[in-house]
Amino acid sequence: MDPVRNPYAPGAGQRPPELAGRDRELQAFEVVLERVARGRPERSLVLTGLRGVGKTVLLNSLRSQAISRLWGSGKIEARPDQSLRRPVAAALHMAVRELAPRHRAPDRIDEFLGVLKAFALRGAPANAKLKDRWQPGIDVPATSGRADSGDIEIDLTELFTDAASIATDVGTGIALFIDEMQDIQADDVSAMCAACHELSQLGAPLIVVGAGLPHLPAVLSASKSYSERLFRYQRIDRLDRLAADQALTAPAEREGVDYDPKALDAMYDASGGYPYFVQAYGKATWDHAPRSPITADDVRVAAPEAEAELGVGFFGSRYERATPAEREYLRSMAKLAPSDDMQGAVPTADIAKDLGRRPASLSPARDALIKKGLIYSGERGTVAFTVPHFGRYLRSQPS
């Protein structure tokens, strides 16, 4: 069939043509927006799940909902080697700029921007080189005495409180969206939790919506014990059969193309219902199918191409980031893992036994793989892959 009309989009964070199976999350966030608009207290939100389940797509969709309600919004992607000061300052700058035209007192906006600038500049040490001093592009002078103490917990709490007051003046809210939230540095995680706690106590109209890997709740809990009650956690999982079928058939129907029922069976078996894989197999199958309806034979013919594409872009690129010692650890995990899903945790003691090593000697490899986002530890003494089907991929590779 015509590849130009191919509707599927297997891209990182790219919205699929049909956002299937996420109605519950979208409706729940609509309730959050409405409650905040009415001055009702509401918790910030955390989405967790494996890679490839569509967390970033959902995060972007939630942001679109906030924007449609005339909220101020900003989005950042956390990095383990970067403080929150600069990205949070940039995101809140964007959010307040969206609200500024509706604010009746320009001086209040300038006052906040002065605090925001002081917060951002406080992240650079006094002796920093010029190239390391970030200028946030704010025309007003930095103020002193607010959000500039150098203690990130105090400063972030004050900044969030001041930003929320701007939203209150306008009669709306602010939402800060954070992707890869598990990569926030430990001190910044503690500060984020403290700031959200203060906002919840005040009933202030600023919420954080984070997305991250399955161990993100444990990261937050290790920082502040009350984080278990501070956030509303939503686990984002693979699509069920009906949603996976909808993700494939709805875009195809808009192009006048149908699927044979057995083709949908084969698609679900191949993709496991993971949204990224659904798009990858859908794209390859469309390009190989000679006509409508798409058949199970078309899926089987196209599967090797989809798997080769996944092997390079989804699995291989991650595997290449690992050192030889880390790859040895990953291969042992793949051999021992009972399954490729979130329940496929492997005891670290079993990995050590398989490799003939002392568990302590493998800690550097394990910790490095966690930092690289290739594995996570959901429970003490166990590890699991962050990438679905990664174990199956590794078992298919030559040693």
TrEMBL record:
Keywords: Heme, Iron, Metal-binding
Boundaries of every Cytochrome c domain copy: 168-334
Span list, region Disordered: 1-20
SUPFAM superfamilies: P-loop containing nucleoside triphosphate hydrolases
GO MF annotations in UniProt: electron transfer activity; heme binding; metal ion binding
Signal peptide residues on this chain, from the entry's feature table: none
Domain of life: Bacteria
PANTHER family tied to this protein: ATPASE DOMAIN-CONTAINING PROTEIN (PTHR34301:SF8), DNA-BINDING PROTEIN-RELATED (PTHR34301)
Protein name from the UniProt record: ATPase
The organism of origin for this protein: Virgisporangium aurantiacum
